Amino acid sequence: IIIRSKINWTSYSKTRLGIEMGEKKLDGAGLRGQVAGKTALSTVGKEGKGLTYRGYAIEELADKASFEEVAYMLLYGKLPNQSEYEQYSAKLKSYRALPEPLKEVLERIPADAHPMDVMRTGCSMLGNLEPEGDFTNQNETADRIMASFASIVTYWYRYSHDGVRVDTETDHPTIGGQFLSLLTGKEPSEEHARALDVSLILYAEHGFNASTFTARTCASTLSDMHSCVTGAIGTLRGPLHGGANEAAMEMIEQYSTREEAKAGVLDLLEKKEKIMGFGHAVYSTEDPRNAIIKIWAEKLSQLDGNTTLYEVSEEIEKVMDEEKGMFANTDFFMASAYNYLGIPTAIFTPLFVIGRTSGWAANIMEQRADNRIIRPSEEYIGPDNSVWVDMSDR
User: Fold this and answer.
1) Which of 143, 192, 241, 287 is labelled catalytic?
2) Tens digits of per-residue pLDDT, 100-144?
3) Is 280 a catalytic residue?
4) How far, in Å, CA of 307 to CA of 194, rounded?
5) Is 241 noted as a catalytic residue in this protein?
6) Given 197, 224, 280, 287, the catalytic residue
């Protein structure tokens, strides 16, 4: 990787091989533990700070901020005052409309397509219709992409599943509220809209995770923002990244009681199968986002009048702690929270996209501001001195 962070790549290559460096030995498989650049956007489990966005604790943001405030802060460098917030909210609302050619493309995507593929195609098509150009309006491009995603996935879903062409130009004050109103066809309650708003805040930014690093790598080549975000969506689609909440939901909904959940998870552990939604590549003792969304999952279960899904989730969390010493990450209770909001499991990860686009775009702009192309070295493990054999003799 070549970034202006003065990384010593001779030292890096040795570290990648797990070679002793002074008194410290690192195994860099998957680049874990390797510093790949500098950022002013977030801390992730560092120096006792937990998770912060531009210095603000995630707990405070989830309690006091709207997602739009957090997005503005990430993209523009500071919290907006009242006037700036009103102007920004109005701008995002104006960006909810989709171009007709994009709607035509969405209507051609079959109902059984994965919604993440819809997001990827929608972003790419938007880039064809509204190319970024010379980067001078990169903030406008970021805002447009972020504001259009709820429209893209709900327009496709309602048309392909219900035959309804929804009007995406709603006047709901938040992206989360707009999403729920378009998806369900009814105005969400204040509690439901706020719960989704909080989830988007929790997903907004998280250091150099796989999808963000993909976006920064693409940005380092001076590619356009639509390409960077499209690549990030493809990376987030994987079950080891954003798709974990879908996998967690598929497991949780198999059980109808705490007893069933306990027995089922113990059986899975006995078979050495992976339990999705637990552990984290960076956090060692807890994911600070989990405590926040767990509270919301419980609140939503009580509002729903059926707490089974929450109780099953809580039992699975307890078993994983007792048996494996593993903690739930944000994806685990996010699954039951989204289910209580009436969101189909396949659309869980697109919501991750909507929230994380603010962080992706902020990282893309940060990369562009002090850019050198990201190009890692590699360790060759193939054969030496292979002997050519002519086609007729193979």
Assistant:
1) 241
2) 999 999 999 999 999 999 999 999 999 999 999 999 999 999 999
3) yes
4) 19
5) yes
6) 280
